[in-house]
């Protein structure tokens, strides 16, 4: 039985706490009132784990895309690296600028910068911290921020603390909207138009919820055309492109040979590389700015040795070419999945009825330059279909999660599937068949005209679990 569905059932079974907590201090009652709004909408999140991972449950959700975590290779290499450096401390025991620095970290940064063809690199404890440092330290008063509307939450958090007052989004991956946005900044900001202040443009390599790739070359050439003096520069978040795109997984910028054009690259390393931490690639000017103005670098502890050792061995895997085969398998896996889904007899009807849609597949395969392991399956807008599909998959042994607003726009609810080099052909065929079986059930409900009355089998099971939790009062 799926632990995701159980924990969902338990979370949704929670009764409103505002009345039962009436003797608690107001501080806690106010917090319970906030949580009650989630409880009322069955949106209360909870945590769970998968003891049956790899046996009863097949992973189509983790970020271990190259299979380095699953295979245990990362763990083995990591243990060897620790053994080779017997004097290591667990904690860096200080921020980077005081006690937290080490030769090991400096050598690592040097080698990583070389691998990515960058002038220099700066380690961070994680990607959230790296984005916060970049967006608080780099845009200066009078500068503007322009960002893709689907940019990651941690970039938004960084931008909130930025000195830049002008912040404008452009439509996701839309070149016309990008051009219009840059032109409007140029036209409304005399100091930027005169080349005295700058525009920092934030994009991602592969967008985490959509699995599509940033049209970086085109964006760069539009930015150069509108700002020929070079006062428009890019920050790219390569969290999801790291390890899966480019030579030896070096990322989108390296794949396109744009190393000289992109001012700042942020790579998070717990995903495809199965390590942890993050690294910012930039030049010495930017690095110096981050060290002097990146408040969370100045005031937080530096990455400890275990994290650095994991990053070292992760990069060794990429550098040695050992992960190339896994990287090459992505295209094959996604094509196999697409073929199984779209050749199934239910596909056309389910697609027409908006029960299953994969917008990524609307583009011509011949024109598709990069294949990414993230495939969002969009379900019928403004319904609970995405949750129903996730229940169905989870109860049938596949780990995949529903995604909804505010993580994705309203009406674009989905279940996100992530492929891993470790997923076998049989597993991929099985998840495609399971998705189609669910779509058949949903079409049947449509044909009966019982939508809203009859819920699909897996959802019925989930609701029954929730009722049981309510009756037991264990929630
Ligand atoms: C695009 C993107 N950027 C940044 C982050 C934050 O990285 P970290 O998990 O290392 O804090 C994530 C995390 O999932 C991400 O998907």
UniProtKB/TrEMBL annotation:
The reply to whether Membrane figures as a keyword in the UniProt entry is: no
Coiled coil regions, renumbered to chain: none
UniProt xrefs under InterPro entries:
Aminotransferase_I/II_large, AON_synthase_class-II, PyrdxlP-dep_Trfase, PyrdxlP-dep_Trfase_major, PyrdxlP-dep_Trfase_small
A Gene Ontology annotation in the biological process aspect, one of them, is: biotin biosynthetic process
Tell me, what is one Gene Ontology molecular-function annotation carried by this entry? pyridoxal phosphate binding
Q: Entry's Pfam families? A: Aminotran_1_2
Keywords of this protein's UniProt record, alphabetized?
Pyridoxal phosphate, Transferase
What residues does the Aminotransferase class I/classII large domain cover? 55-435
What this protein needs as a cofactor is: pyridoxal 5'-phosphate
Of which family is this protein a member? Answer: Belongs to the class-II pyridoxal-phosphate-dependent aminotransferase family. BioF subfamily.
What this protein is called in its record is Aminotransferase class I/classII large domain-containing protein
Q: Which organism is it from?
A: Pseudallescheria apiosperma (Scedosporium apiospermum)
Q: What lineage is on file?
A: Eukaryota, Fungi, Dikarya, Ascomycota, Pezizomycotina
């Amino acid at each position: 039985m799926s632990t995701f569905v159980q924990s969902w059932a338990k979370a949704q079974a929670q009764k409103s706490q505002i009345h039962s907590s009436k003797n608690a201090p107001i501080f806690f009652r106010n917090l319970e009132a906030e949580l009650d709004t989630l409880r009322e909408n069955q949106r209360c999140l909870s945590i769970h784990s998968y003891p049956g991972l790899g046996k009863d449950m097949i992973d189509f959700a983790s970020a271990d895309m190259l299979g380095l975590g699953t295979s245990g290779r990362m763990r083995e290499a990591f243990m060897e690296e620790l053994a080779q450096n017997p004097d290591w401390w667990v904690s860096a025991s200080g921020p980077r600028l005081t006690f937290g620095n080490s030769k090991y970290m400096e050598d690592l940064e040097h080698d990583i910068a070389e691998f990515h063809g960058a002038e220099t690199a700066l380690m961070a404890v994680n990607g959230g911290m790296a984005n916060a440092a970049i967006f608080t330290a780099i845009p200066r008063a009078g500068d503007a921020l322009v960002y893709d509307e689907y940019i990651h939450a941690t970039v938004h958090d960084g931008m909130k603390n930025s000195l830049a007052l002008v912040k404008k989004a452009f439509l996701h991956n839309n070149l016309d909207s990008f051009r219009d946005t840059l032109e409007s900044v140029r036209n409304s900001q005399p100091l930027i138009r005169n080349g005295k202040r700058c525009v920092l443009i934030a994009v991602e390599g592969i967008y985490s919820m959509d699995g599509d790739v940033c049209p970086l070359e085109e964006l760069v050439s539009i930015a150069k055309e509108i700002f020929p003096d070079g006062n428009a520069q890019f920050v790219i978040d390569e969290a999801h492109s790291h390890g899966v795109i480019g030579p030896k997984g070096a990322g989108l910028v390296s794949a396109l040979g744009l190393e000289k054009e992109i001012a700042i690259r942020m790579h998070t390393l717990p995903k495809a590389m199965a390590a942890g931490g993050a690294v910012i690639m930039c030049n010495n000017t930017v690095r110096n700015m981050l060290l002097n103005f990146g408040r969370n670098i100045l005031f937080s502890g530096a990455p400890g040795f275990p994290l650095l050792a994991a990053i070292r061995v992760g990069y060794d895997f990429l550098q040695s070419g050992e992960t190339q085969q896994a990287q090459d398998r992505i295209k094959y896996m996604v094509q196999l999945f697409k073929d199984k889904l779209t050749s199934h007899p239910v596909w056309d009807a389910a697609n027409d009825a908006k029960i299953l849609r994969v917008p990524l597949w609307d583009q011509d395969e011949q024109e598709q330059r990069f294949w990414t392991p993230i495939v969002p399956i969009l379900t019928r807008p403004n319904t609970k279909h995405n949750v129903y599909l996730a229940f169905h998959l989870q109860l049938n042994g596949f780990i995949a999660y529903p995604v909804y607003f505010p993580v994705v726009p309203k009406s674009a609810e989905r279940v996100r599937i992530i492929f891993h080099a470790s997923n076998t052909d049989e597993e991929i065929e099985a998840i495609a068949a399971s998705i189609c079986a669910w779509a058949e059930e949903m079409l049947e409900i449509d044909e009966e005209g019982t939508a809203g009355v009859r819920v699909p089998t897996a959802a019925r099971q989930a609701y029954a679990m929730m009722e049981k939790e309510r009756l037991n009062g264990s929630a």
